[in-house]
């Protein structure tokens, strides 16, 4: 392949002017970067390019059909929901993603959310800003019950690289860690059923993919089986938890807290039930668990490695 021209359709979803893009520029004959790309701009921008680099821009069957020069799609993420993989395979287009780049960052974010709930950090921070500490009759201000995680049970749903990293952090805090078998997968020794995990865990953390087997993995029935005042954290995918059911459980005081870094629709341009101001003990972060500078730089490196390996005839991290 003589020409090896690439187009990065949504570079600012990855680069906040704090990354070194030289590894990418060095591997291509030409690299065009666009801050963001609307659906109407995708096909015109990909004309003549052999490589498309995307984070979340949708590459549908119609896009692939209209871009016959395209030979390689490099996804600057792990998730592949934005690429029509069947259409890519039928068109002979190779698809590679990034893997394992954000393990430490996502695990750190998950632990941060769990600790924030256990220590009631948002409530205490708000109270201090409102001047309530200054009106206390004692040196301290203990209006919000604090939970010690040492000795508690952490339930992990999805025991891949990230889930295993979170499990290790939980163990470092003195927590007992259990993992559950996921629906649609063969059971593994040493894992409990989902029902057992729901009933035993003092805190649950989700690290599984979103598919037909895991959509609404945690719904009204599952939330009802959880211990009163248990915590739940989702840094995986929106849709793993039924958002309406979670909001209802929090409003009636069933859970000790919930924290999510993901929503079903992102960004929530049409609003979201979990963004209502009256939901207690809920922390929502804007899909930032993956976003450390170190993790994003690893994505750049992996995208460049994927491109170079494809050009040499030995693709890596290939999903199609």
Can you describe what's shown?
The protein is of the alpha/beta class. It has two domains: 5-101 and 293-311, NAD(P)-binding Rossmann-like Domain (Rossmann fold); 103-284, NAD(P)-binding Rossmann-like Domain (Rossmann fold, 3-Layer(aba) Sandwich). The chain has eleven helices and eleven strands. The chain has helices spanning 22-27, 42-46, 61-66, 85-91, 103-118, 121-129, 161-172, 194-200, 220-225, 243-251, 293-311, and strands at 5-8, 30-33, 51-54, 72-75, 94-96, 153-157, 176-179, 203-206, 231-234, 257-260, 282-284. α3 (61-66) links the parallel β3 and β4. The chain starts with a strand and ends in a 9-residue tail after the last helix.
Per-chain topology:
Blueprint: E1 5-8, H1 22-27, E2 30-33, H2 42-46, E3 51-54, H3 61-66, E4 72-75, H4 85-91, E5 94-96, H5 103-118, H6 121-129, E6 153-157, H7 161-172, E7 176-179, H8 194-200, E8 203-206, H9 220-225, E9 231-234, H10 243-251, E10 257-260, E11 282-284, H11 293-311
Parallel strand pairs: 1-2, 1-3, 3-4, 4-5, 6-7, 6-8, 8-9, 9-10, 10-11
Helix pairs in contact: 5-7
Instruction: State the CATH architecture of the largest domain.
Output: 3-Layer(aba) Sandwich
User: Could you tell me the radius of gyration in angstroms?
Assistant: 22 Å
- Main β-sheet, in a few words? 6 strands, parallel
Average pLDDT, rounded to a whole number, is 96
What percentage of residues falls in helices of 4 or more residues?
A: 25-40%
Could you state the order of secondary-structure elements as H and E?
EHEHEHEHEHHEHEHEHEHEEH
CATH superfamily of the largest domain: NAD(P)-binding Rossmann-like Domain
Task: Output the CATH class name of the largest domain.
Answer: Alpha Beta
**Number of helices in the DSSP assignment:** 11
Oligomer: single chain
First-last Cα distance: 19 Å
Class by SSE composition = alpha/beta
Order of strands across the biggest sheet? 7-6-8-9-10-11
């Amino acid at each position: 392949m003589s020409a090896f021209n690439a187009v990065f359709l949504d570079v600012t979803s990855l680069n906040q002017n704090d990354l070194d893009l030289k590894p990418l520029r060095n591997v291509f004959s030409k690299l065009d970067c666009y801050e963001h790309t609307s659906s109407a701009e995708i096909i015109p921008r990909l004309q003549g390019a052999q490589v498309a680099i995307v984070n979340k821009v949708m590459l549908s069957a119609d896009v692939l059909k209209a871009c016959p020069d395209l030979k390689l799609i490099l996804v600057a993420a792990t998730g592949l929901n934005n690429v029509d993989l069947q259409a890519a395979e039928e068109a002979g287009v190779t698809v590679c993603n990034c893997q394992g780049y954000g393990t430490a960052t996502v695990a750190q974010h998950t632990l941060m959310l769990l600790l924030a709930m256990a220590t009631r950090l948002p409530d205490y921070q708000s109270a201090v800003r409102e001047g309530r500490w200054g009106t206390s009759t004692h040196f301290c201000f203990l209006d919000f019950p604090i939970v010690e995680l040492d000795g508690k049970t952490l339930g992990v749903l999805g025991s891949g690289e990230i889930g295993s990293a979170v499990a290790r952090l939980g163990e470092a805090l003195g927590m007992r860690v259990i993992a559950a078998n996921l629906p649609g997968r063969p059971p593994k020794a040493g894992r409990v059923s989902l029902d057992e995990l729901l009933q035993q865990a003092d805190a649950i953390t989700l690290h599984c993919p979103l598919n037909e087997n895991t959509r609404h993995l945690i719904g009204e029935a599952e939330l009802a089986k959880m211990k009163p005042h248990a915590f739940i954290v989702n840094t995986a995918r929106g849709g793993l938890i039924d958002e309406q059911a979670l909001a209802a459980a929090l409003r009636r005081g069933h859970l000790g807290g919930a924290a999510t870094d993901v929503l079903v629709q992102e960004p929530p341009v049409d609003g979201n039930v979990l963004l209502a101001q009256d939901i207690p003990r809920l922390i929502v972060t804007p899909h930032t668990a993956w976003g450390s500078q170190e993790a994003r730089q690893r994505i750049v490196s992996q995208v460049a490695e994927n491109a170079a390996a494809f050009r040499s005839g030995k693709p890596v991290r290939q999903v199609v």
